[in-house]
Amino acid sequence: MRKVLKKEIAAVLSATLIMGLTACGSEPAQETPRAEAAVEETGKAQTDAAEESPAEEEAGIVEEAAEGTDEVQSLLGETPLNPEDEYFGISLPMTNTEYYKGVETELSQYCEKFGIKYDMASADSDTQKQLSQFENLMTMGCTTIIVYALDPTSMQDIMARAEADGIRVVSATMTPENIDAYTIAIDANQDSVGTAAAQFASDWIDEHYPDAEDGSIEVVLFSMSISENVIQRCDGLRKIEELNPKAVIVADYDIPSDNYMVKVKENADLMMQQYPDVKVILTYSDVFNLIVDEAMMANPDVDPSQVCSIAIDKTNAAMEKIRLSKTDESTIRATVATGEDFNLTLIQAALGAFDSELNDLKQYFADPFVIQADNVDDYLK
């Protein structure tokens, strides 16, 4: 019987793998009561806290409000729409995975920070439920609906209805075929995302094997081909040979969507048998990378200091492994995120920040961002 995956890895395995890289709002954060300052007088300590005069208290409130406004403006930037005038509906496909728990938390925190009224709904991986929830958000009077669509094709008609009714529709991570189904699509050029991972691998090869001959550094890919977006990302990974002549792809495992956990583990074991000298592993997602890394770290014949694996998707589990790679306790050296802060970008887009920058398909692309050992501590939560 196959060894059961560790809990930390199983926690991130989710339907997000197949979704193109792919609930009410949280309660407001509790305010911390202002601590009363003790006043010390010459020759005597006061036992009672000093009370502020009304003028002093009002001045303090104004100062705090100004500081809060500056922080919001610095983070959010200038937006055509006033956050406090908006009512966001947020439609998520699920919230029971690490990735979407993070999405839920970040969007909630940003809405609260910026003073945006919002309601959030999770479809629990049920397309019909997401359709119903989306329609509910429309009837509730939302001015904008941010949607991570479980099935973009099935969602297109209702999204187009919302757009026609004057509701801003922000499509996250994917661009529906019907251009009338959304106001703006916040997407990522998947070829660029894959290429960013390949570039990191190329730089790692040059740093660790500066004198290697051309075609001597073995590279293995764990790819997929289930959609055009997925293919584009994996084509970006394959550019490793173009970016660095020392690299040669010796195997490219095309992982099916069915039983993908088992298939990744099987191919990881096969890789170590057939290519014991492999130095670089490029994987379609953090999910794949975590499985491969576990298999390699369990193999006593593998020297992790000589191996670099790179993934895509920015999960906390992968970032924990990147931190461990500093002491070669993991082979995972980096992960590529679709934008440094994708959910903040969604909020900015919903408030019209990028309306003048859209292409003919009403898309705004988030630039790939590499998280590695040097900066991983800034992003771990």
Average of per-residue pLDDT values? 85
Q: What's the order of the H and E elements?
A: HEEHEHEHEHEEHEHHEHEHEHEHEE
Going by helix content, strand content and strand pairing, the class is alpha/beta
Radius of gyration over C-alpha positions, nearest whole angstrom: 24 Å
Q: Helix count?
A: 12
| Count of distinct structural domains | 2
CATH class label of the largest domain: Alpha Beta
Low-confidence stretches: 1-16, 18-52, 61-67
Q: Please tally the β strands and state the result.
A: 14
Q: Any idea what the CATH architecture of the largest domain is? A: 3-Layer(aba) Sandwich
Q: What is CATH's topology name of the largest domain?
A: Rossmann fold
Spell out the CATH superfamily of the largest domain.
Response regulator
Residue share in β-strands: 15-25%
What characteristic shape results from the CA principal axes?
elongated
Biggest beta-sheet profile: 6 strands, parallel
Distance between the termini: 35 Å
Major sheet strand order: 4-3-5-6-7-13
Helix content: 25-40%
